[in-house]
Design brief:
The chain has 127 residues and is an all-beta fold. The protein is 0% helix and 48% strand. It contains no helices and eleven strands. The strands form two sheets. Strands 2, 4, 5, 6, 9, 10 and 11 form a seven-stranded mixed β-sheet that branches. It has a four-stranded antiparallel β-sheet with strand order 1-3-8-7, with no helix packed on it.
Length: 127
């Protein structure tokens, strides 16, 4: 069974940090662009960050640039989203998703249809 599983969400105070992980089972992430998306209550889902299959190319939403860092470890079949300087407006359910590298590039990774999605992990930033 092909699955993506997110972990690492939780409650954190403004200014704090969280590290989200996206682990794949049933397939290898080596040839996939991985994207992180989030959806807050009453809002549309938005792209947060993505990373190419090699890890050499990344993209970030303007709202998280300089605060979030995406990385991948293909040997561990995992992608990590390090989130620093968190703000209340970062609160949302965060999802990771995978799309074949041949189907897209990181420059348009927030616009394409992803083949696989995780179940999401809740991030709450509140004092």
């Amino acid at each position: 069974q092909l699955q993506l599983v997110e972990s690492g969400g939780g409650l954190v105070q403004p200014g704090g940090s969280l590290r989200l992980s996206c682990a794949a089972s049933g397939f290898t992430l080596d040839y996939y662009v991985i994207g992180w998306f989030r959806q807050a209550p009453g809002k549309e889902r938005e792209g947060v960050s993505c990373i190419s299959s090699s890890g050499r190319s990344t993209n970030y939403a303007d709202s998280v640039k300089g605060r979030f860092t995406i990385s991948r470890d293909n040997a561990k079949n995992t992608v990590v989203l390090q989130m620093n300087k968190l703000k209340p407006e970062d609160s949302a359910v965060y999802y990771c998703a995978a799309v074949p590298q041949l189907s897209t590039s990181t420059s348009v990774c927030f616009l394409v249809d992803y083949a696989y999605w995780g179940q999401g992990t809740q991030v709450t930033v509140s004092s």
